[in-house]
Every structure is written in C-alpha cells, then in structure tokens.
Amino acid sequence: MNTSDVIIVGGGLAGLVAAAELADRGKKVIVIDQEPEAFLGGQAFWSLGGLMLIDSPEQRRMGIKDSRELALQDWMGSAQFDRPEDAWPRKWAEAYVDFAAGPMRGWLHDMGMRWFPVVGWAERGGGFGSGHGNSVPRFHLTWGVGPGTQAPFERRVREHEQAGRITLKFRHRCSHIIMENGAAVGVSGEVLAADTAARGHKTNRDIVGDFELRAPSVVVTSGGIGGDFDLVRKSWPIDRLGPAPKEMVAGVPAHVDGRMIAISEAAGGRLINNDRMWHYTEGVKNWDPIWPNHGIRILPGPSSMWFDARGNRFPAPSLPGFDSLGSLKMILDTGFDYSWFITTQKIVKKEFALSGSEQNPDFADKSWVKVVQQRILNKAATSAVEAFKEHGENFVVAQTLPELIAKMNGMEGNDLLSPDKIEAEIKARDMQVDNNFSKDAQIMAIHAARNYRGDKLQRTAKLHKILDPANGPLIGVKLNIITRKTLGGLHTNLDSQMLDASGVPIPGLFAAGEVAGFGGGGYHGYNALEGTFLGGCIFSGRQAGRADTIA
C-alpha cells in the first residue's frame, strides 16, 4: 500500500525545491533524511549563497553587458564536453542557461529572495575567450547567504507540512530502493537513534529500528561525495590531475557521504562522469571546526602572490580566482599537495573573503550597516578573516620577508623556501607597479579587475609594492586542497528521470541536485563557472517537481 505519491531521499536544497513544487501540484510527499531536523537544507545552509544569473538588473546596474549567448559560450568553453554520454548533460547545460537568462530571477524574487547589488566575478578563466571561465561577473550573492537561499523553499515546505501534504521523516536512512517489475515502488532502510548534535556536526549511526515506505515515484536528492575522502580518492582522475592529494581538508560535512549513489546503481541507475569533480586549492584549516577536518576556502582577489611548496611562482592562468582545476593540476604536478600565498595586510583587508555562511555574519544577518562597516569603511579585514589571521594554524604574520619565510618554513619543518629566491621574485613584481601598464600577467590582471567598478569598490586592492613596509605586515598562508563538489552523477533526462545503462528511463525513479551531477549526470562538464551549484540544485529540483512523468 502506498504511503504517499512521492518519496524524496534527502532533505537538502534540491529535495526541498522538488518537495515544494510537487506539493504545489497536490501531490502527497514524504521527505526522508538520515540527519536530525536541525540539518534540514543540507549543504546549502553552509554556502555563501551565490547564484549564477544572466543579464540581471544587478549586472546592468554595475555596467555589465551579459547575454544568453555569451554565457552559453562561456559554459561550453568550460565544460569541454567530449564523451558520448555527455548528450544529456549538454542539454541540461543549455536548459540551465536558458533558465538563468530567463525566468529564474523573477521566480526567486517573487518568493522573496534578494541579492547584494555588487555582482562577483568568480572563476575568471584560463586566458582565451573561447575557453574556460566567466567573461563577465555573474556571481549573485544572495542576501542572507546560504540560509537566505534555503529559506523560501523551507517556508513553502513547512506550509505544506502544516497542511498535511508533506511529511518530514528525519533519522531515516535509506539503504534500498524497492524495485518491482522494473519500476521503483518505494524505499527501505534504518531508523537511526536520535541525536542532538548541532547542525553540521557528525552524528551517530546507531540503528534503533527499520522502515519501509511505498510510493509510485522515488526522487533521490542525497548530495555528493565530498565528505568521504575514500570515495573522492577512488574517483580521482589520475590521468588528468595526477595522484590524489595525501592530505586534504573537508569543505563539506561528514554526512555528504555519497551512499545513495551505489544504492541507486543497485536499482538500475547509471553513474557517469564520476571522474569529474570540483575541489579548491585555497583551503585553510578551520581554527574553530564544526565537522571533521573542517576546511574553509579563501575566496581570493587577484593580488596575492602565489608560490608552490619550493617557492616557485605560479604562472598565468594560475592566478588567484582564475582557474581552479588548472591551478589544482599545477600544484599536484609539483609533487606536493599544498601551496603558499604571500600577501600584505592591504590585500587581505580588501580581497580576502571566506566561504561559508557562518564566516559572513554581515551578509547572513542582511545588515547593510555591518556590510559597509566591515567591507567598505573597514581599517582591518572582516572579523572572520582577522580571527583566522590570529588563530589559524595556516597563517603567519611578520614585518620583514626573511622573518616571514622563516615562519613559513617552520610551519612545515623544512627549508624548501629560499628567502633570496622569493625576495628576488617579489622585487621584480614590485618594479612593475610604477606604470599603468606591465609585462607581468598578474599585474595586468589586477588592472583589468579594477576596470570593473565592483572589484574596484570592494574586491581588488589598489596596486602597491608588497615589500613596502607601509603596506604591511606581510602575511603568509599555507593553502590546502579542499574537497567540495561532485561534477558527475546519476544519468538523468530533462524530467530528472534516472536512466539505466541503455539510456532508458527507469519507471518511477528520479534524481536531482549534486547526486545527478546537478542534472543529466554532469551538466558542468569538466569545469564549473560558480553560482551553478546552488543554482543547479534549484533548477534540477524544480525540473523534478514539475515533471509530467512523476506519479
């Protein structure tokens, strides 16, 4: 006997969107999640809340000329689709660009979502107009960051819960998709013991019972693999990036465990492009961790000097904020799994932002006063950045370069960094600052960034000499590889129907969000443009919730 029309496995953003859309249609929905109620929303809660929108009013007010055509060119140049199984991912990519250039902003705005007026320029690319990267700023920071992105959908879900159309079952861990006559008809699994852990902390896996639920449609929205380093290393693309890092930090909580991927495969679903993933190179260990091995990503402006473990400066396009996977490969090619920023207090003050809703209380609180005080009129960096500078084990501060290099070498217990070599490189860079033109690619990039008034206002420091004591103190930051997103996933069509090994839809079985590679099994291809992770959860959850093929 059916207990609902639809069962959704996973209470993250994609699951919330799908549930809200389904209940709007009058469907009776059960959402199950292995975590406690306090975890509702999943990773979205911890995010910075960035969304990729195209030709938005915010862009136009900042003097940005964007279009569907330019965005699609950027997406395809970044995705570099090259496999037969990329047919559906390509269709999903085109559909998302249409959505982001069309109804997306108005739909979200009508639900109460708002955005910071300065549009961010993330992932600036690898150097060619036809290649990877955003030609223009497109990163729209949601007012309220991750919680602000989640809130409109959670509100809709709670309203439907009150009306009896949605039932939320926490601490219910799915371990099996029930298949009968080739169709999904329900799920079964274990009831886990109650846990009062705060959101994001690791919870117990003590089993206190079991359950079985039946419905003619099952939607898997369980997220990716970034919290399980063993799965990350198992899927690591050694042929493209080299061996997986020996040491990493976790950019997502432990519950991002990828369990439902294998369970979906056992039900007939097909995992594609699992070697495509998205990890960052600017991770620092959280001095006040929430989940195991908790890392925070520095969102850098373009001005910090970037060196490998032996003190060699990275060439373009491996500049801060330009080409995440290109920089990752360049780091791993050195035989080490870390690198260094050498920077100044002036750069840190204007250019260092930190990922995560909890690291951005001014945006999270929707406080214009705090934003202006901390990011425009500030004499220091934001309080969160200054806390990392003071307490973070990956930060060192010094008044002179020899003292700084000694502290950096001391952090690693070696003498790989040569003070003379690094001083010569920084002096050569500093000599390029006296003119409004330069042969140094990073200096050229800084000039270009400051031509955009959003960067000039709050994200790119005025060019200055790093070794001038007036710009100090000097700051060294050890950068770790930080896990984040799964770009491949379960193969789906545009209705979010899961496809079997022959490409045929499996009756009653759907997937959305990161577990589906945000759509189709990998709509990013090899590279992401940023703002497309939360955006992909919203879009694919909406597609699933509106699918005519759902019961």
From TrEMBL:
<feature type="domain" description="FAD-dependent oxidoreductase 2 FAD-binding">
    <location>
        <begin position="5"/>
        <end position="534"/>
    </location>
</feature>
<keyword id="KW-0285">Flavoprotein</keyword>
<dbReference type="Pfam" id="PF00890">
    <property type="entry name" value="FAD_binding_2"/>
</dbReference>
<keyword id="KW-0560">Oxidoreductase</keyword>
<dbReference type="InterPro" id="IPR003953">
    <property type="entry name" value="FAD-dep_OxRdtase_2_FAD-bd"/>
</dbReference>
<dbReference type="InterPro" id="IPR014614">
    <property type="entry name" value="KsdD_DH"/>
</dbReference>
<dbReference type="InterPro" id="IPR036188">
    <property type="entry name" value="FAD/NAD-bd_sf"/>
</dbReference>
<dbReference type="InterPro" id="IPR027477">
    <property type="entry name" value="Succ_DH/fumarate_Rdtase_cat_sf"/>
</dbReference>
<protein>
    <recommendedName>
        <fullName>FAD-dependent oxidoreductase 2 FAD-binding domain-containing protein</fullName>
    </recommendedName>
</protein>
